[in-house]
Amino acid sequence: MKVTVSGYYGFGNTGDEAIALAITRELRKYGAAPLLLSNTPEDTARTYDCDSEARMQPAALLGALLRSQVVLSGGGGLLQDRTSARNLTYYLGVIRLAKLLRRRVVVFNQSIGPLTPEGGRRVARALRGVPVIVRDRGSLDTLEALGIRAELGGDPALLLAPTPGLTRDPRRVIVAPRGDVIDATEALKDVVRRLRAEERHVTALSFMPDHDDQAAHSLGADEVLSTRDPQVALDAIAQSGYVIGVRLHAVILAAASSTPFSGVAYDPKVQGFCDDAGAPAHPTRLDAAQLTDEVLTRRLPDWTAIEDMRLRAAQSFSRALNR
């Protein structure tokens, strides 16, 4: 069975590449052959040892869908028009084309929104009759308001595992900023200063080097790790005692590696994940003293809830493939 996967792949975003890594691994467990739609299909094919086609080339996109029996739209936060209406148009267009070709199409472990009223109407029309699996409860509520029924799954990156044999340093703290969330970056400088005064070793982790490196270097951390490789990011997190994440997948990979974390909710998807995981989430204009205290006391999430999320993520593949 060939499965085409539509998402934000091939753009050098470690979080989305973590999703790609998890999806390709899990699909193979079901005997399915993944085909990723990518901005850089040659690199994607080489990285994940799978078929890949150019996401924006109409002939390549059509060919991918024609060769597939199932189309997964996701994971990630694709169905939103906060970034731009053009992104929403693209992802809904892939869904509509797959439906037109009578392929089984599933909205797969996405966060839904934020959506303008017009964007909400477009999503409701496009998803009529489409199986929908979302990764957080907030997205269930968003779709319910649009009259769309959905099931709760989990982010596929929760299924990734650190390299065996790593040693955790409880005094190491990972801070993962996002380059365009300037108020959070400014507040995190104070947090880093406080943590270093308490003799914590702080690593600034850049999840999207072209986008986040400047913010990471500005924090005043002991070191900066810049990577596009999700396994490198996961292993760094697994060797730390706590994670502060503006980037969503910093906190998701923390959960995957049993590392306590606090989120900075620049977007509802960060708030949604932290709420579901029983972990603290802060506004971008955060209280540095409060966040520092969470790190120093190693405030724990709800590990049982996280295990439930991981289980739902695993089970979502059989539901999506109708197995």
Automatic annotation (TrEMBL):
This is Polysaccharide pyruvyl transferase. Keywords: Transferase. Residues 13-268 form the Polysaccharide pyruvyl transferase domain. It comes from the Bacteria. One of its GO terms (molecular function) is transferase activity. Signal peptide: none annotated. InterPro entries: Polysacch_pyruvyl_Trfase (IPR007345), Polysacch_pyruvyl_Trfase_CsaB (IPR019896).
